[in-house]
Amino acid sequence: MNFDFVSRRSMVTGRRGMVAASNPLAAQAGLNILRQGGNAADAAIATAAMMNVTAPASTGIGGDCFALYYDAKSGQVTALNGSGRAPAELSIDYLGEQGITGELPARSVHAVTVPGAAMGWHDLITRYGRMTLADVLQDAIYYASEGYPVTPVFGASWQASEQLLKNGPNTEDYLPQGKAPQVGQVVTLPGLASTLRAVAEGGPQAFYESPVADAIVETLQAQGGLMTKEDLKKHTSTWGDPISVDYRGVTVVEHPPNGQGLAALMALKIAEAWDLASMDNLSPEKLHLMVEAMRLGFADARQYIADPDVSPVPVDALLSESYAAQRRAMVSADAAMQPPGYGTPPDSSNTIYLCVVDGDGNACSFINSLYMGFGSGIVAKGTGVFLQNRGANFVLDPTHPNALAGGKRPYHTIIPGMLLKDGAFHATFGVMGGFMQPQGHFQVVNALIDDDINPQEALDRPRWCLTAGTDDSTLALEEGIPVKTMARLAELGHRVQPISGRGRGLFGSGQIIIRDQKSGALFGGSDPRKDGLVAGY
User: Fold this and answer.
1) Which of 137, 244, 308, 354 is most buried by a 10 A CB count?
2) Record-annotated residues binding L-glutamate (predicted)?
3) Which CATH superfamily is domain 1-24+55-113+234-537 in?
4) Which residue among the candidates 54, 151, 195, 351 is catalytic per the annotation?
């Protein structure tokens, strides 16, 4: 049976509630919560927990989460930062003594940061939800215990990671009969079910101050890591205000640093002066300008984005009109620029993304990640919990704002997005996939605002990606972009790499839900590059 996809999806409509996720069971879990009287916050956590079960390569309670939440009563958007910190005892000097210099190996035990998801899940529903963790985790616990069939796209990533799993500690649950499961094979995850059940009954303390915490620390220390029980016990989420720009009369809202949403907003500020709506979507002229704007956004993002509690980020200056004009002037329509480097502003994944809108108009844009596939590849003994490797994004230069330090949060790739019109909720959106995420946000916002197309069409469009998320990256172009466009981009000086087939996973995967402000009708799309579904009623 051939599981390769060609999108034939229709946009989904609803009125009383809608959930968009990368797995059908996860979307249904969220919809079940809405039908039971839960709101967007409750449904988001139910969906995220089910994604942990059905897409363990991409996400989990051993990772981090970020959320943007629109509260219909107040009309305010709030940002939840559920990212964890490096172990207190970890330092650049210590790594140097271990022979680790230049960059931190992605699968190193020292790349494991404190998992923030469990606390983030709890904090979101405590502040905005109507239900408890015990209520919203029931479907995830059931399917982890009783089993579910592996879906095609996630099955492929599972099989591609088989050797990583065989090399990692305590991964037996994820290698039934000693190998990665096949598409359609029914998988149970008893260790994960036990952990989710403990968290449902005991809250976040059952993760951070418990036998689960003991297992995390003992497993990591056995691998040479420095994480302690105190690191886990001290973990907290943080709440804050989102960051935003006005783009053609629509407010584009992103999560603030340490997330990389700032990169997407910088690209949008640069691009706003160009008449992109008049250009053909897949023309070399349009793609060239957008790519150049994104390169400039990445150049500054990789320099300035860090843990704001340690290294303040000049957000207002980077998003100012004057700085956007200064950076825009570097772009030529006739040639790709040399790597621009970061500017000086004036003073002043593997991942899953899901979104939920409820019948009261509340909306949640939510993203949860282990970073790379199966994170560090390390499972805490007896828990079924893969531990993330987010610390791989730290810089080992002590003078850099994103320099590794104990108790510090790293540059984060995961970012939820939202659109407001006239101050009221309009859309929730996100594109998962490491450094593809701000590029995906840029392309989705362009599709929804400049080209005024529906959410499913916006997600179906072929994409481009600066592969390493830097100002000198290779430009990957997805199958579906005309060959003549690729050729012209190469003539302009871009290092072009056509991508087709399963390699298209590079371009991430997204979800979008739009709410009509007059009728309350909901319109949803789910990315054809994953196994996802929009569920509404």
Assistant:
1) 354
2) 434
3) Gamma-glutamyltranspeptidase, small (S) subunit (3.60.20.40)
4) 351
